[in-house]
Design brief:
The structure holds two protein chains of two kinds. Chain A is α+β, with helices and mostly antiparallel strands. In chain A, 44% of the residues lie in helices and 17% in strands. Chain A has helices spanning 7-14, 33-51, 90-110, 113-118, 120-136, 139-147, 154-180, 185-193, 199-219, 221-227, 230-237, 249-252, 258-266, 279-282, 303-314, 327-334, 346-368; strands at residues 68-71, 76-79, 82-84, 244-247, 322-325, 372-378, 385-386, 392-402, 408-415, 421-424, 436-439, 443-453, 462-471, 477-485. Classes of the chains: A alpha+beta, B mainly alpha.
Chain lengths: 487, 290
């Protein structure tokens, strides 16, 4: 254990092979502030993920009453009071932009908060480790049991069986919760239990069960180190002010054992706080030594902070030898200046402004979005038809969207060529000058609309024509513009 | 592979014993997993020959133990398609012609089906958008030789024009010149008269009253006294702006001299009744239908 760190070894590690065979990591259990934060966030994230499909939201008769639902057959997405149509997927673009900038902001404030506390890989791996610890015991016990490979007794076998069963159950329910977002949750649960659910649901559950079981049970830190692109992107996002989990070597070095430190101090030599107990390494879920400095493999979960604080408290030294800090403060302390923490900086202000901007834009778009919409497509073949009396007719495909949950009557007005008349195929309107149509609730209606104009009044080749759609009852108006072409 | 004792000092490997210009080839065999995979694909291929049709014979081919054929697959898919369409097409076949356009769902189905069938069968003459060509009527406009109501359109599609079917429209424009009914100058006069009916310019020196007399004696029987045409006889309205073969003097002289007898094939028996119905609705909804 108390092997001194040889700087040459550290140097060699950087020149090592691109991929080294997996060294099994046995993180030790730990308690403290960051562990409590992690437990809390884990409970929150898993709670949201597993329970959200069961939250109900009343949208009236005929509409699904699930708060969050991706309704693929009907091409709708429901999120509480929001109902999105396929034409409105740009909201997701906005959401992705906000999510990305939030990550940037988090990163510039506290480093890889996402990696350490919120990433699904971290959350589920943490959960799987908890199960493993509960059944097989803590670090030392697990190491001992694994070393005794080949002499597997019945007890060890039943332990492993139990562990993998629980893992598979968690993984299965993870996949199960996923499909619940795509169908009415209580109905689907009933169908799943009675084996009446669609094949696709079982296939997706199987896929997600397998990935959860493999990623959280076996690949674990390998995902973060080798598969995930985020550690690489991180380097481009972080700056010198970002608070990262840092070993404060100005406090810690030179590290030496407790006994030796006391002797050296008595002699008046300067010694650091680090007693080289390796507790920070023992608890690390990616199996690294934080004292080697900032590194790609570190997911910055803060568990080493808890481990170190426990030891420091025990031996009566100052805590936070490892803590959220940055190089600037280490250098300032070494120069005898007090550390400064700067949250408001140009970078964070810009990120925050961007989030506020995109968020406000999305909110505005959401609040002002129309529930009546019209699209017009001009016939291409033929573009214009000459009638027997010499007048010109153009045909259009008019697509109307009624996003409201009830039928409504709309009128079609046009504003285009002089003296033009409008006719909708299949509709004998009581008002021939102004065709009226009933739009079915929550659906699109496609009409074939003919616009006829006397040739003499429209000498130009092409004039714009505006289609105005008016809801007779509510007064809502939607409009679209196309061209009226003369051959 | 034979083992060679030749040993390469630099790489610490044996060589294959092959040498070119003093360069020796190191013995670096393919990875075992690769070789195994390769042999497995050969085994797989042999299995494939047995299970699926593979070998061409002189006049046929091996059928394989599964008796699989992609052609049979297509037949099954087509049968499934018919089954999926079945109910809807039956509903279309059962609905009265006039009701289809009133029902948005049926109208959409009829237009979709009609558009496809039109593209396959009608587009060669009438154009893919039904805009027609010289001698082939434009189906988007409001001039109809044999009537533009839904029933009349369906009648024309079913039996055609001068197609040889007993129920087809038969009447044709007579060849007044070729058959010696009218003399050359009379034809020129009446051609100018016809042009004047729709407000087109006439040649200098043409005698209007003579033209009117020739028209009343020879043309009014079909085209009507006021030249408004007669859809019972397929006689076009000569006073409007639409001309199937053209409105210039030379074309009119040609038409009057040699007559016109365009042919539209019969489609009954070639297309099933619901499809013909869909086609009629589609053509009607192009905009010209009465």
């Amino acid at each position: 254990m108390n092997k001194p760190v040889n700087p040459i070894d550290l140097q060699l590690e950087d020149d090592g092979p691109l991929y080294v065979a997996q060294k099994k990591v046995y993180p030790q259990s730990v308690s403290g502030t960051f562990r409590r934060i992690k437990w809390g966030l884990m409970a929150f994230c898993l709670g949201v993920y597993y329970l959200l499909p069961f939250v109900r939201w009343n949208r009236g008769l005929g509409a699904p009453d699930q708060a969050v639902l991706v309704d693929l057959p009907n091409s709708r997405f429901y999120f509480f009071f929001i109902e999105l149509w396929p034409q409105e997927v740009y909201y997701f673009t906005g959401l992705l932009i906000v999510a990305a900038i939030t990550l940037f902001l988090m990163n510039s404030l506290g480093g890889r908060i996402w990696c350490g506390y919120l990433c699904p890989q971290t959350v589920w791996t943490d959960l799987f480790y908890a199960v493993e610890r509960l059944i097989e015991g803590d670090r030392r016990e697990r190491m001992r049991k694994n070393a005794a490979r080949g002499t597997m007794k019945l007890q060890r076998f039943s332990e492993l069986l139990l562990k993998h069963s629980i893992w598979l159950m968690i993984a299965w329910w993870t996949g199960g919760a996923w499909v619940l977002y795509f169908n009415d949750a209580p109905t689907l649960v009933k169908q799943l239990v009675t084996f009446q659910a669609p094949m696709l649901a079982y296939i997706w559950i199987a896929i997600l069960t397998a990935t959860t079981y493999l990623l959280a049970g076996f690949m674990r830190e390998q995902v973060c180190v080798y598969m995930c692109p985020w550690p690489r992107i991180q380097a481009a996002l972080t700056d010198e002010w970002a608070l990262n989990v840092t070993y404060k070597y100005d406090h810690g070095e030179k590290r030496t054992s407790l006994k030796k430190a006391n002797e050296l101090r008595a002699l008046g030599e300067s010694v650091g706080d680090c007693i080289d107990c390796y507790q920070c390494v023992a608890v690390c879920p990616t199996g690294i030594d934080i004292r080697d400095g900032a590194q790609l493999d570190c997911i910055q979960c803060g568990l080493c902070i808890d481990a170190c604080d426990t030891v420091m408290t025990k031996i009566g030294r100052e805590t936070r030898l490892i803590g959220y800090d940055n190089d600037i403060n280490i250098h300032r302390r070494q120069a005898g200046k007090p550390p400064i923490y700067r949250i408001v900086r140009p970078r964070t202000v810009v990120y925050f402004a961007m989030i506020a901007c995109v968020g406000a834009l999305m909110l505005y778009a959401l609040l002002t979005r129309t529930l009546l919409d019209v699209n017009v497509l001009h016939d291409r073949n033929p573009v214009a038809v000459k009638l027997s009396d010499g007048s010109i007719r153009n045909a259009y495909t008019v697509r109307l969207l009624n996003k409201r949950g009830f039928d409504r009557v709309i009128a079609i007005d046009i504003d285009g060529p002089v003296n033009a008349t409008v006719h909708v195929v299949g509709v004998d309107s009581v008002t021939p000058e102004r065709p009226m149509i009933i739009l079915g609730r929550d659906q699109t209606t496609e009409l074939r609309v003919l616009v006829t104009a006397p040739a003499a009044n429209n000498p130009e080749k092409s004039v714009p024509v505006h289609f105005r759609i008016t809801d007779i009852g509510l007064g809502e108006v939607a409009s679209a513009t196309d061209n009226f072409v003369t051959p | 592979m034979t083992e060679h004792s030749d040993f390469d000092q630099v790489s610490g490997k044996t060589t294959t014993g092959h040498e070119w210009d003093g360069i020796k080839e190191l013995n670096t065999p393919l990875p075992r997993w690769w070789v195994i995979t390769f042999y497995l694909t050969i085994v797989w291929a042999i299995g494939y020959w047995i299970v699926y049709p593979a070998w061409p014979l002189l006049w046929s081919h091996t059928t394989g133990v599964l008796n699989y054929s992609s052609r049979a697959d297509v037949a099954v898919e087509l049968a499934n398609l018919e089954k999926i369409r079945g109910d809807k097409m039956v509903a279309l076949g059962a609905a009265p012609l006039a009701e289809i356009e009133k029902d948005p769902a049926l109208l959409a189905l009829a237009r979709a089906r009609g558009k496809t069938v039109f593209g396959d069968n009608c587009a060669p003459c009438h154009g893919s958008g039904g805009a027609g060509a010289k001698g082939y009527p434009n189906l988007n406009d409001d001039e109809w030789l044999w009537g533009g109501s839904l029933d009349q359109i369906m009648q024309t599609i079913q039996f055609g024009v001068r197609s040889g079917h007993p129920k087809a429209h038969e009447n044709a424009m007579l060849a007044f010149g070729k058959d010696g009914v009218l003399k050359k100058d009379q034809i020129v006069t009446v051609a100018n008269y016809v042009r004047s009916l729709s407000g087109l310019s006439t040649s200098p020196g043409y005698n209007k009253s003579a033209g009117a007399k020739i028209f009343a004696d020879n043309c009014a029987a079909c085209h009507g006294d006021n030249a408004k045409g007669n859809q019972e006889l397929g006689a076009p309205d000569l006073t409007d702006k639409i001309w199937l073969y053209g409105s210039d003097e030379a074309t009119l002289i040609e038409t009057i001299s040699n007559g016109r007898a365009g042919v539209m094939p019969t489609w009954v028996g070639r297309l099933d009744p619901p499809t013909i119905k869909a086609l009629a609705v589609y053509v009607h909804s192009l905009g010209g239908g009465k």
